[in-house]
Amino acid sequence: MATEVSGENYDGLLKEMETLKGRLDEERLKLNDVALSTVSQRLEGMAQLSIKPRRVLKGHQAKVLCADWSSDKRHIVSSSQDGKIIVWDAFTTNKEHAVTMPTTWVMACAFAPSGNLVACGGLDNKVTVYPLSMEDDPINKRKTVGTHTSYMSCCLFPNSDQQILTGSGDSTCALWDVESGQLLQSFHGHSADVMSIDLAPSETGNTFVSGGCDRTALIWDMRTGQKVQAFEGHDADINSVKFYPSGEAIATGSDDATCRLFDLRADREVAVYTKESIIFGVNAVDFSVSGRILFAGYNDYTVNVWDTLKCSRITMLYGHENRVSCLKVSPDGTAICTGSWDFTLRVWA
Amino acid sequence: MSNLQQQRLVVEQLRREAAIKRITVRQAVADIMKYVSDHQQDDCLMIGFSSQKANPFREKSSCSVL
Q1: Which of A256, A322, B21, B58 has the fewest beta carbons under 10 Å from its own?
Q2: ipTM, two decimals
Q3: Distance of CA A313 to the CA centre of its chain
Q4: Which domains does chain A have, with CATH numbers?
Q5: How far is CA A325 from the centre of its chain?
Q6: Which of A50, A69, A262 is the mutation pick for testing B, counting most B CBs within 10 A?
Q7: What is the pLDDT of residues A146-175, one digit of tens each?
Q8: 320-349 in A: which are within 8 Å (CB) of B?
C-alpha cells in the first residue's frame, strides 16, 4: 500500500499514527459482517462427551505451574513452585525423573521434540535444559541456554531440539541456540510481562503468538523478529495463547474471565467465550484436534469445556481442589492433562 | 533511542499492519467450521473412542463386566 511520507517531524508522525489507527479500526469493522455464533446456528450440537478423569499424578510438594506432553503421547513433564521438575509416565503414573532446580517457582517447562531433553525455568530468569537419560542424573548434564532480565514465564522448542523460544517478565520473547547458548533473535513489542507463547502448527513453523499483561496478543515472524499482527480486546492480563489447529486463528484466556478467538485473516476478534456466572480468571487454554472443543482452566478450580463454534459451554471438568494453572491436550488428541495449585496433575480421556 | 526514532518505528509498524490483506468474518468462520468438519472424525475427545480398548488411558482392571 502506498503511504505518503508525512514528514520526519514528531508531530507529523503522531498525526500519521492516529490516521493509521483509525483506518485499522475502520477496516476491521467493515469486514465484521456476521457473528460466528450466528453462522454456527445451523450446525448440530455435540453429542454428550465421554471425557472422564483417568489418572492423578501425585508427587509435587507445592503448586504445579506448568506441564507439557512428550511427542510419544505417554510422558508428561511438569514443573512446580517447589523447584522441582518431574517427568511422569502418564500410563502408569510412575515418576521417571525428578530434578530439583536451584530456584523455586519453576514457571515453565517443555519437552523437546525428540523426547530426550526438557527445558525449564522461572524466577531464576534462565532457561535451562536437562538431557534425560537412565544412566546419568540429569542434574550433572544440565546446561543454561539463555538468560532474561526478569522471570521466564514460558518456553517451547520450535520444530527441533536445537532451538528454544522463551517468553519473559522482561516483556520480550527470545529465540536461543541450545548448543551455543547464543541469542538468535529477540522480539520486542509487548509493553508488559509476556505470559504465554505458542507456535503456529504449520510445517515451516516460522510464526508464533505471544500474550501478556499488556492485554495484547502479538503474532511474530520468527525469522525477522518482526511483529506481524496485534490483537486487543481483553480487559485484563492474557495468561494463555493457543493456535487454532488450522493455524488461521488463535484463542486467548485472560484474567477478565473470558476466552476469545481472533482470526488472523479477518484480523479481528471473532468470538468471546463467557457466561455471567463465570467470574474467575482463565490460566490456560487448548483445543481438541479438530478445533471444535476449547478447554479452559480457571481460578475457580474448574475446567470449562466450550463449543468453539457455537460459543456455548458444553460441560465442566471437576476434580482439582485449587486453581487450574495449566492444561494441555496430548499430541494425538486422545487425552488432556491439567495441572493445579492443589499439587496434582490429572489426565482426562 | 530518541522519541522521534521511536515514533518512526511505531508508525512503520502501523503502516505494515494497515497494509495487511483482510477477509470478511463470514469467510473466516466458514474456514474455521470447515476445518472442524474435515477433522472431527479423528477427534477422540469430541466423539469418543471406537472402543474403550482404543483409549490409552482406559481403566486397567483384571476382571471385565459381561
Answers
A1: B21
A2: 0.91
A3: 21
A4: 15-348 (2.130.10.10)
A5: 11
A6: A50
A7: 999 999 999 999 989 999 999 999 999 999
A8: 329, 332-336, 347, 349
